[in-house]
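Hi there,

I know you've been waiting on this one. I reran it after we fixed the sequence typo, so this is the corrected version. Both the input and the resulting structure follow.
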Amino acid sequence: MKNIKVREFPGGTIYYLTTNRPDIIIMRGSYLGGDLRAPDEAHADLMVSMLDQGTSDYTRDELNEELELLGVTIDFDYDTQRTRFSASMLKDVWRKGLGLLKSQLTDSAFDSNCFKIMKERIMGEQNERLSNAREIASIAMLDEIYPDGHPNRVPTVQAMIDQLKAATLESVKSYYLDQRMKGELKIVLVGDIDESMIDDIVSEFSGWDKGSYSVQKPKKPAHKAVKKSKEITIPGKVSADVLLGQSLQIDRHHKDFLPLMLGVDALGGNFSARLIRTIRDEMGLTYGIYSHISGVSDLSDGYLSVWANYPPDKISTGIEQTLVLCREWINGLGAQELLERQQGICGRFVLNQSSCSGIAGLILHFTEQGFGPDYIEQYPKDVMTVTLGEVNQAIKQYIDLDNFIDVKAGSI
């Protein structure tokens, strides 16, 4: 969008867009410092979870009451590379809302009682994950695809539980203090924005240290595709989640990413794709089946996964028929099929811009990944200019069905 403005400041960059929605302010932001910089993922999870549990000026209850009184919503999250924050508010409480966000990021209290409750809550969530067949299968697949230390590899659920047990209030607070006000900031504002608000952000975050930390390409790439099969029985399940897939050796900036993404979308991107229409609707073998390219962000080499959920007696047939359909798919898409995928992806992309929140999220995503803020306009153009030859060549070049990994988790 040509109306997106940019302000650089010592701590990072602010992107802002004024829209015709009066009084509404939407902020999306992040700073470099995700779980890769933490002692382990449990510390990152606990630290981010404690940011809304009170500050030196407000107890947790007082903070929640203040936010509710102002009508301000503030949330925090994290991923491998970044800690993220978001805020929604009306313009007349902007200064107060911004101050509360800043204090949560930089002056959280780490109350011992709140920490105990939060640790128990996250532990409960992890125990629930022990019976999540799809997640267990995904972790097992990533374990086969990526070496130790790769950003796309994640700890097992039991490893996460062990990390949580070992984490203490002192160790988590120490991590918080060590990374506080460090790491390049990216802040996006969309709505009823004026220049004085940008000045407010620069003032509030004036002491933020951009630092030298940056996203780096993984030192150890994903393993090349090697055929392997895993079975993980989960007691009490009545079905099984099955993942088929392989590493792809390309990231989001690779010239073949968009062609391959369009091809994979045609295979199983949504209800109109080949897998759903054939494996589910025509054969009735599965409750759901989809294909995706994942793990391509932040210079990482991604992977292809085909997920399906089967009753135990249909697993073998489901996998067999999925591979039959994949072999037909490797022979190539047709021109009309490609056009439909391009139009569908671009249509959904436009719909994501129907709200200030959607626009802010897209701007943040693209700028985090090294694209300019105007890529929000360029992206659909790039999608529509991909040729049929590029798509079919990418499918044949990168997909190796004979070396697919398959992981089954649940009732086998």
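Quick highlight: The chain has two domains: 5-204, 228-410.

Best,
R. S.
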